[in-house]
Amino acid sequence: MNYTRRKLLVLLAASTAVQSVAGQALAESVVAGAGDAALDKLPDWSAVKLQLWKYTNPFVPSQWSEPKLGGYDWKAANVKIVDGALQLSVSEKASAEVISGGKSDFSSARWEVDVTLPTMKPGLIAAPLWTFNDKAHEEIDFEIVGTKGLQLTVWADVDNQHKSVWVKWILLGDQSGKRYRLGIEYEAGKRVAFFIDGKEAAVVTPADTNGGAFPNHPMKPYFDLWVAAGAVMDTRWAGKWEPMAASDRLVMTLHGYRRSDIAP
């Protein structure tokens, strides 16, 4: 996980918490996949080799520390591939993240994951698919926030700061163990579309964001399961995290992943 991004999230947590309270009152429910034909199976992870620090590889596990988040460090050991599925786990004092590696930045793309969510707890953040450009301060998020539901967020550079410019809450309530096909379509400077089980859940353009700020640089996908602990985190956003027993483990399973071009 990128230190600058997570530090900014910590600083913005109180602001985001206020947005989430307001957003929940206006949230729209999505009946995922209702009436749709079965979606094609995404490619699994069998051929992927996970190696720490090997950023030229297609995918790389993260390992770094952020004491301000209560010491729940990102550990490469909390990521593994089992029977063709990518498993990310949170254990006591350890989180998990996988970053796409070399040549994975795109200004126009569709990213998709097939995910089974972990048992959710207050303070646990499951981000099975999000995209990011660190230098440009730009980001697009699917985040299941504690037991509150799914938050969609678009971030952009505002006065040289990483700020959320559009937020929407859907699929409210505890999403423990649910399985979804999630997708992001991105056209730099023009459009972001979120999909759930093949259905369009939201479309965002510069006309929809605060002040028209909008991502306009290439991005790469990330897959993340982390803990919003630590005194600096506002519990109004994700809830209060309670420490786990040493033997406990919360597991998020990504059954498949695909990046494809957007048809002209």
How would you explain this protein's 3D organization?
The chain has 264 residues and is mainly beta. It has helices spanning 3-26, 235-238, and strands at 59-61, 73-74, 79-82, 85-90, 94-100, 108-116, 124-133, 138-145, 149-158, 161-172, 179-187, 191-196, 199-204, 220-227, 250-260. The strands form two sheets. Strands 1, 2, 5, 7, 8, 9, 10 and 14 form an eight-stranded mixed beta sheet that branches. The protein is globular, with a radius of gyration of 17 Å. The protein starts with a helix and ends with a strand.
Question: Gist?
Answer:
This protein has 264 residues and is mainly β. The chain has helices at residues 3-26, 235-238, and strands spanning 59-61, 73-74, 79-82, 85-90, 94-100, 108-116, 124-133, 138-145, 149-158, 161-172, 179-187, 191-196, 199-204, 220-227, 250-260.
Low-confidence stretches: 10-29, 31-36
Total helical segments: 2
Radius of gyration: 17 Å
Q: Helix and strand succession? A: HEEEEEEEEEEEEEEHE
Shape: globular
What keyword list fits this structure?
single chain, 264 residues, mainly beta, eight-stranded mixed sheet, seven-stranded antiparallel sheet, 11% helix, 42% strand, globular
